[in-house]
Design a protein that fits this description.
11 helices, Aspartate Aminotransferase, domain 1, three-stranded antiparallel beta sheet, alpha/beta, globular, 364 residues, 36% helix, 2 domains
Length: 364
């Protein structure tokens, strides 16, 4: 994982891509859900209209799923063969949880997003231990079977010390599961550095809800059960529609679930847009705006959560101001008592100024 460099910003690329969006007001809530590009809306509308006419999914529809798989792999640095597609992160995390031996210890950060935590908690035979994020690496021990954490924390935008956590896991023989949901699309990551990664597509990847991606290393695939496997997880899907599957896919596709075609038709366009601008460019753009907001907040006596290199700004104790900002046309969110502001390619300096101006008007 590397932080974006501001010097890599390409205003022309960002400006061109921003033409795909027309938010109603000031939208600063990508950590909840990204805006859909116009090209994405058009793609899903076209397929929906075909479905309304009774046109069944054909080869091109299945090809769209493969194009989305490959595009996501390129964005996170792994081959398409290591990517499984699905509809939700929690369902994909449950595949990892189901593969752990009884009594295994799972180490997670305190306050981690529930979709990453609950699939392990529902197994009473696992030992789930939560520690402060900045102590995660130090808390890995010989009995730890899996360390799971979000690369960027949902509640406050903090970046985990990935290198230290991965080194500690390797030293103790623990596997790693990184949630990229708040990172993929703006932060340069190498999914191949982990045993597993998972990410929803509807945040910084600008896809619709109903898209999610799981990466599984070759080594981890050998010990991970495809507990949700259906016919789409077969090596030869068209000859595996009835009875037991003769052979599961040799790649991570064995962890596929049947996906909503409308969502993946749209995902092809959204992922292509992110690729065309570049993750490094998007990261530099987003972080520059977040840093500007952090500086403005400090000047006004507010203390944002320290999160260097993050595109997400969180201010403890100001969560109640989210509603007032919304009434003023500034869409943000409140998480764990924090006011959370998140930036992406459709945001500009004027959006930062708008937040500061509304906050400066006092409580509403």
């Amino acid at each position: 994982m590397t932080s974006p460099s501001r010097s890599s910003v390409s205003p022309a690329g960002v400006e061109l891509a921003a033409g795909e969006f027309a938010p109603d007001g000031t939208y600063l809530n990508t950590s909840s859900a990204g805006l859909l590009p116009r090209r994405t809306v058009e793609a899903v509308t076209t397929l929906a209209e075909r479905c309304a006419l009774g046109v069944r999914p054909d080869a091109s529809t299945y090809e769209s799923v493969e194009r989305a798989r490959a595009a996501y792999g390129r964005l996170v640095g792994v081959a398409a063969e290591r990517v499984a597609v699905g509809a939700s992160a929690s369902a994909q995390v449950s595949v990892v949880a189901a593969s752990l031996a009884p009594g295994a210890e799972v180490l997670l950060p305190e306050g981690e997003f529930s979709s990453l935590v609950q699939p392990f908690v529902v197994r009473p035979d696992l030992k789930v231990r939560c520690v402060p994020l900045d102590e995660l690496a130090a808390e890995v021990r010989p009995e730890t079977a899996l360390v799971a954490w979000s690369v960027v924390q949902s509640s406050d935008g903090r970046l985990a010390d990935d290198g230290a956590v991965r080194a500690a896991a390797a030293a103790h023989g623990a596997r790693t599961l990184a949630d990229l949901s708040q990172a993929a699309g703006w932060l340069t990551v190498d999914a191949g550095a982990y045993d597993y990664t998972v990410s929803v597509g509807y945040k910084y990847l600008l896809c619709p809800r109903g898209t999610s991606f799981l990466t599984v290393s070759q080594e981890a695939q050998e010990v991970t059960l495809p507990v949700q496997a259906g016919w789409s997880a077969a090596e030869d899907i068209w000859n595996s529609t009835y009875g037991p599957i003769a052979e599961l896919a040799r790649s991570a596709r064995r962890y596929d679930t049947s996906v909503p075609f409308l969502c993946y038709e749209a995902a092809v366009e959204s992922l292509a847009l992110v690729e065309s601008v570049g993750v490094g460019v998007l990261g530099a753009h987003n972080v520059a705006l977040a840093d500007r907001l952090r500086a403005g907040l400090l000047e006004r006596g507010h203390l944002p959560v320290p999160a260097p290199g993050s595109a997400v700004v969180a201010v403890p104790g100001l969560g109640e101001r989210a509603q007032g900002l919304g009434k003023a046309g500034v869409k943000v969110s409140a998480r764990a008592g924090n006011l959370r502001v998140s930036f992406h390619l459709y945001n500009r300096v004027g959006d930062v100024q708008r937040v500061l101006a509304v906050l400066g008007q006092g409580a509403r």
